[in-house]
Design a protein that fits this description.
3 helices; 4 strands; four-stranded mixed sheet; alpha+beta; Glutaredoxin
Length: 81
């Protein structure tokens, strides 16, 4: 699984990255977590508001920083989809 955190490097983006890593650890899942700060790459995913969360090249969330529990739900939902 590859997870990308999209954003310019603001506090919300950093928080999303930390929470995503924590959620993965709590779920016992291995994933590569990447930060994407390049505006052209962020725009290529079609999100209008950062931070964004992309799981296996599909936008899973954007525009806010979910709780760790919500992130776990999002991650698990992408695995069953």
């Amino acid at each position: 699984m590859t997870i990308k955190v999209l954003g310019p490097g603001c506090m919300n983006c950093k928080t999303l990255e930390k929470r995503t890593i924590t959620a993965l650890q709590e779920l016992g899942l291995d994933a590569v977590v990447e930060k994407v700060e390049d505006y052209k790459k962020i725009a290529s995913y079609g999100i209008l508001h950062t931070p964004g969360l992309v799981i296996d090249e599909k936008v899973a969330h954007s525009g806010s920083v979910p709780t760790i529990e919500k992130l776990k739900e999002i991650i698990l939902a992408t695995q069953t989809a």
